[in-house]
Amino acid sequence: MKDLRKKKLFVVMDVLCVLVAALPFIIMTIVFKPYQRGIYCDDESIKYPLRPDTITHGMLAAVTISCTVIIISSGEAYLVYSKRIYSNSDFNQYVAALYKVVGTFLFGAAVSQSLTDLAKFTIGRPRPNFMSVCSPKVCTGYMQVINCTGRPQDVTESRLSFYSGHSSFGMYCMLFLALYVQARLAAKWARLLRPTIQFFLVAFAVYVGYTRVSDYKHHWSDVLVGLLQGALVAVLNVRLVSDFFKKRPPRCVRSDAADSEEPERKPSLQIADSEHSNHYNYHHSPGTV
């Protein structure tokens, strides 16, 4: 009973950590308005026409979510079924494995979005199509306060150029999945399949960044920083939070099962590694890397 209560506490702690990491993103989106940066009315870099999104928010969400669900759910199902990984949890092995990977993914996504919105709202860089969206009545020289005639929601959105949220979120999701595939799809028959999947995942994220420039929604530097930020968060999340590439201690042996073993068999103790162990450690079989 005490162990069960402790594991429930761990789950609550995980959920709270994800919510806390997402707080800046939630607060900025609901409460804050972007910094009102002044502009030069003759600045050609913000006079591009208004164009529709090649990759809309809904399309980006649909692709990233569907890829995440398909790759992670099928990958964990195969590994649990083939007994290549298992959890020390008392819950269903597949649910425990899925919970850990999805929790790690969501935590990194929350961090990435929070960092993106912190930059967007505090810097307030005008988009390349700012003048087309704003449609000011009068604009001469340098103006700190601009009397825009466009829709207030669109004008607010047009001040969120740096850095690209599409690029950072797309790169985070796709690079996280590429690293997941690198760690999980270690079979010999996947020697070329693995890099092929990784190529298309990362290529989609880069393509999303290209479209943000061609649609005049972001400057090229916004996209570059967004791609780098998403990649950095994905690598740090996989390296420091997940256990994709970490060696794990062996599975715990229950006391009742140990008592039923033959007397001459030497008992095995779980290796306690304070640096890497956590409440849902995995064991990798010797055949996998």
Automatic annotation (TrEMBL):
CDD domains, per database record: PAP2_wunen
The keyword Transmembrane helix is assigned to this record: yes
Listed Pfam families: PAP2
GO cellular component annotations of the record: early endosome membrane; endoplasmic reticulum membrane; plasma membrane
GO BP annotations, alphabetical order: phospholipid dephosphorylation; phospholipid metabolic process; signal transduction
Keywords: Cell membrane, Endoplasmic reticulum, Endosome, Glycoprotein, Hydrolase, Lipid metabolism, Membrane, Transmembrane, Transmembrane helix
TM regions (residue ranges): 12-35, 55-79, 91-111, 160-180, 192-211, 223-241
Localization annotation: Cell membrane; Early endosome membrane; Endoplasmic reticulum membrane
Hydrolase is among the record's keywords: yes
Main location: membrane
Stretches with biased composition (Basic and acidic residues): 255-278
Annotated region described as Disordered, given as residue ranges: 255-289
Recorded metabolic or biological pathway in which this protein acts: Lipid metabolism; phospholipid metabolism; Phospholipid metabolism
Known role: Magnesium-independent phospholipid phosphatase that catalyzes the dephosphorylation of a variety of glycerolipid and sphingolipid phosphate esters including phosphatidate/PA, lysophosphatidate/LPA, sphingosine 1-phosphate/S1P and ceramide 1-phosphate/C1P. Has no apparent extracellular phosphatase activity and therefore most probably acts intracellularly. Also acts on N-oleoyl ethanolamine phosphate/N-(9Z-octadecenoyl)-ethanolamine phosphate, a potential physiological compound.
Family according to the record: Belongs to the PA-phosphatase related phosphoesterase family.
Protein name in the entry: Phospholipid phosphatase 2
Organism: Stegastes partitus (bicolor damselfish)
